[in-house]
Amino acid sequence: MPIWIQTAALLCVSNLFMTFAWYGHLKTLNGKPWLIAALISWGIALFEYLIMVPANRIGYTELSIGQLKIMQEVITLAIFVPFSVMYMQQPLKLDYLWAGLCLLGAVYFIFRT
C-alpha cells in the first residue's frame, strides 16, 4: 500500500478521536464540571496521539512536513463537517465549502512539483 494512503488512513482515524476529544464533550458532558470533561477528553486524545504519531512517522518517509500538515488539515475538515452536522446537529453551512476550496488551493501549492 502506498505510503500516502497508509498515512491518510491513519490520520483519518486519529482525527476522529481528536474531534471527539475536542468537541464531543460539548454535547455529552455539558452538565459535568469542566475538569471531568478535560480528563475524559485527555483520555480520548491519548488514542489520537497513539495513531497520529505513527501516521506522521510513516508519512515523513516520503512526504515533507508541509505536505503532512496540509494533508492533516484537509482530513480535519473532512472529519469535522460530518461530525458537526450529524453528531452535533449543527446546520451545514456554505462556509465549509469555501474553506474546503481554500484547502484545495493549499493542497495544490504544497504538493506541486
H/E element string? HHHH
Largest sheet: none
Number of domains: 1
Poorly predicted spans? none
Tell me the number of strands.
0
Oligomer: single chain
Categorize the overall geometry. Answer: flat
Binned, the helix content reads over 70%
What percent strand?
under 5%
Structure characterization notes:
By secondary structure, this protein is mainly alpha-helical. It has one domain (3-111). It contains four helices and no strands. The model has no long low-confidence stretch (mean pLDDT 94). It holds the Pfam family DMT_6. This is DMT family protein. Keywords: Membrane, Transmembrane, Transmembrane helix. The chain crosses the membrane at residues 7-23, 35-53, 74-90, 96-111. InterPro entries: DUF486.
Helices and strands in order, then pairings?
Elements: H1 3-28, H2 34-59, H3 65-87, H4 94-111
Helix pairs in contact: 1-2, 1-3, 3-4
Organism: Stutzerimonas zhaodongensis
Transmembrane segments: 7-23, 35-53, 74-90, 96-111
Pfam families: DMT_6
Features:
single chain, 113 residues, flat, mainly alpha
In short:
By secondary structure, the chain is an all-alpha fold.
